[in-house]
Amino acid sequence: MKHILSKNKKLKTIILETAEIAGYLWQRGWAERNAGNISVNITEISNWEISDFDKYPFVELPYPYPKLVGSSFLVTGTGKRMRDLTRKPMNGLLAIKLNPEANGYWILSQKIGSDNFLPTSELPTHLGIHQMIAKRGSDEKVVMHTHATELIAVTQTKEFCSEASINKLLWGMHPETIIFIPKGVGFVPYMLPGSVGIAEETIKALQDHDVALWEKHGVFAIGNSVGGTFDVIDILAKSARIFFMCQSANILPDGFNEEQLGELKLLAGNF
Ligand code: 13P
Ligand code: ZN
Questions:
Q1: Domains of the chain
Q2: For 4-55, what is each residue's pLDDT tens digit?
Q3: For a substitution probing ligand 1, which of 76, 117, 120, 126 has the most ligand atoms within 8 Å of its CB?
Q4: What is the tens place of the pLDDT at every residue in 85-124?
Q5: Ligand 1 pocket test, candidate residues 18, 32, 37, 39, most atoms within 8 A of CB
Q6: Residue 77 per-residue DSSP state
Q7: Which atom of ligand 1 is nearest to the CA of 147?
Q8: Those residues with Cβ within 8 angstroms of residue 270's Cβ, 6 or more apart along the chain or in another chain
Q9: How far is ligand 1, taken at its centre, from the CA of residue 36, in Å?
Q10: What pTM does this model have?
Q11: Using CB atoms within 10 A as the burial measure, which of 18, 124, 198, 230 is most buried?
């Protein structure tokens, strides 16, 4: 593993940032046991010169991702804890590279016969999102899934289980929310985690938003950096916390009116 990853300074920086942010997810209480997963598209900064692919474990994908031919990703392992990643990043992270048919990948951070583990069970959703980003040609490199408690809690009532109602609530609680998330969040109704259906709905939601809220489960967010992707989820969770603080104090929060939201939205992109 060392010979592949250690010479790449840019990759090392991303690994260290991912480890730091994994610690924040744990501290926030959003990463119980193995909850959450992160992937980073590292194709542009990968400089592997590999001739002996047969030395690395190869895993077939259930269906191909034609737009991701030859792409490389840093991705969290299934069953791995975010809190452990902080201390020993490569004990919970994998570097994978898709084959020329894009219907399978090599695990370049492991050798056949070593103590192997597989990527996150949400890999179909992660790869589907990266493929959607590649198709439209935008810059996002990071896909982050976490069990943001406050955001899960708001989806426990049908009242907030629609794009219109959830965004009205979250935008209304705090100026930062509409400034930094002007497109709002997309909403994905409850479905089995790791399923094809939830991957498809999440990809659809992320075509028009940077965050998809999974009913009664968590969030999927995309961004240019691991830190920046965390920031967006953090802001949304703060809005939800303000709402619940008001509720527990028997205060019915007013929220912002349309005019206030309109002028706040004009500040988007200023910071
Ligand atoms: P993994 O351990 O497979 O990444 O699963 C965690 C999770 O949050 C599933 O939704
Ligand atoms: Zn999850």
A1: 1-147 (3.40.225.10), 148-271 (3.40.225.10)
A2: 676 799 999 999 999 999 999 999 999 999 999 999 999 999 977 788 889 9
A3: 120
A4: 999 999 999 999 999 999 999 999 998 877 789 999 999 9
A5: 37
A6: B
A7: 8
A8: 179
A9: 5
A10: 0.96
A11: 18
Average pLDDT over residues 59-63: 95
Task: Give yes or no for a contact between 117 and 80, defined as CB atoms under 8 angstroms apart.
Answer: yes
The catalytically annotated residue of 32, 44, 101, 122 is: 122
- Residue 207 has, within 13 A of its CA and on its CB side, a CA count of 10
Residue type, 32: E
Using CB distances shorter than 6 Å, the residues near ligand 1 are 34-37, 76, 78-79, 120-122, 145, 193
Is residue 259 flagged as an active site residue? no
Between the CA of 231 and the centroid of ligand 2 the distance, in Å, is 18
pLDDT of 3? 52
- Which residues lie closer than 8 Å to 146 by C-beta, 6 or more apart? 25, 30, 31, 35, 36, 218, 219, 233
Residue 1: predicted pLDDT: 47
pLDDT digits over 220-262, tens only? 999 999 999 999 999 999 999 999 999 999 999 999 999 999 9
Q: Are 80 and 92 in contact (CB under 8 A)?
A: yes
Residue 194: pLDDT band by 50, 70, 90 thresholds? confident
